[in-house]
Amino acid sequence: MTEPQNPDQTAAPAGAARQTKAAGRSAALQAARPMIECRDVHKYYGDYHALRGIDLTIRAGEFFSLLGPSGCGKTTLLRVIAGFEDISSGVVLIDGKDMAHVPANKRPTNMVFQSYAIFPHLTVAQNVAFGLRRDPRKRAEKDEAVEEALAMVGLTGYGARAAHALSGGQRQRVALARALILKPEVLLLDEPLSALDRKMREQMQVELIKLQRQVGITFVLVTHDQEEALVMSDRIAVMFEGGIAQLDEPETLYARPKSRRVADFIGVMNFLSATIVEEQGETLRVDVEGLGEIDIPAAQIATKNETDSAPMIGFRPEAVNVFPEGQPQNAPRQSGGVIDEVVYYGDMTYYDVRLDEEDGTTSEPVRISMRNVFGRDIPDVGARVTVGWSPASMILFR
Ligand SMILES: Nc1ncnc2c1ncn2[C@@H]1O[C@H](COP(=O)(O)OP(=O)(O)OP(=O)(O)O)[C@@H](O)[C@H]1O
């Protein structure tokens, strides 16, 4: 017998993940039938209001993520969908059917947990077959189903192995195979990768995307890891305190956060205080510390600014460039500043820059990221620099 390939080492690098986003996928998903619908779902644990009016529709075949900080209610929502928790009010529909009196084991869902929950004293095949223990099919048919499920997760040839001898990544694959063998309509994944080290997690992210595309069923993932959600999901619901703050595709969430809190939670965003100078129809003219006056069109205005009542301008670290002072650069607008901190990451460098203000003071440091290029000098702390930027990459939080 040939030694099976180690599936931990066959995955593509995580960077390839976004490439699996097939053209037209988002339009196809929009046309797909609703698989999970929550209508004004509330959940109380005693006096504690854990879900506060959840409204969402997850479409058939979608890879959907619930993202938010610890305690925001994402696991509660997943358990509500699975039928492990009753709701206090509202409606949950799965594939068009009201789930009010449908117990967990009668729902077309299956759950994969953070802890692998596999039986170490059983073989890989026995673990996977566990999902079929109530299945009336003949042994040979079940063995075939086990082989099929193992092939799906890249574990062909691993059936006879003892489960305790597997790596973390392989155990999670066994847990996935055990869930998939039941052919659920919806797979619910509660932080399935959080116990893995970073490299393995990135590999498994790509594997999970491929698997989801291959089997075509709806995946609902709970994660507190924004990068994981951005890489894997067709759409993401960002949750805070039992409510959905924004539900969008990853690109929209990152480029057009609707509130300052979402912007803060997803990646890094710089904030500079702004004063509204003039309203010209839909466009606002603002005066921004360190940047001067900018015209902001309606599309770049976020209406919610929960953490501060004063208007703020936000931009991503990669939306601006930093160069040694006097070096010509190709940017619509330029501001002067001084380097406060340099953080070197190999492929890129983060610069914290204080921007010059008209009154001779400087702004709070803003974080700017630049991809490193061989032969280009990295300015030192204290160096005078020119920051090149464009009004098009600025968002106003009112
Ligand atoms: N069985 C329970 N009884 C009482 N309170 C609960 C129960 N389960 C969860 N909670 C509370 O409800 C809130 C939401 O919990 P939930 O587990 O859904 O959060 P989460 O976003 O998944 O967080 P984490 O990532 O830490 O698991 C928390 O404040 C939690 O303490």
From TrEMBL:
The ABC transporter domain, residue ranges: 36-266
UniProt KW keywords: ATP-binding, Cell membrane, Membrane, Nucleotide-binding, Translocase, Transport
Top-rank taxon: Bacteria
One GO term describing the cellular component: ATP-binding cassette (ABC) transporter complex
SUPFAM superfamilies: MOP-like, P-loop containing nucleoside triphosphate hydrolases
Catalytic activity line of the entry: ATP + H2O + polyamine-[polyamine-binding protein]Side 1 = ADP + phosphate + polyamineSide 2 + [polyamine-binding protein]Side 1
EC number(s) on file: 7.6.2.11
GO molecular function (one): ATP binding
Xref: InterPro entries: AAA+_ATPase (IPR003593), ABC_SmlMolc_Importer (IPR050093), ABC_transporter-like_ATP-bd (IPR003439), ABC_transporter-like_CS (IPR017871), Mo/tungstate-bd_C_term_dom (IPR008995), P-loop_NTPase (IPR027417), PotA-like (IPR005893), Transp-assoc_OB_typ2 (IPR013611)
Protein function: Part of the ABC transporter complex PotABCD involved in spermidine/putrescine import. Responsible for energy coupling to the transport system.
Assembly and interaction partners: The complex is composed of two ATP-binding proteins (PotA), two transmembrane proteins (PotB and PotC) and a solute-binding protein (PotD).
Family that this chain belongs to: Belongs to the ABC transporter superfamily. Spermidine/putrescine importer (TC 3.A.1.11.1) family.
Protein name (record): Spermidine/putrescine import ATP-binding protein PotA
Gene for this chain: potA
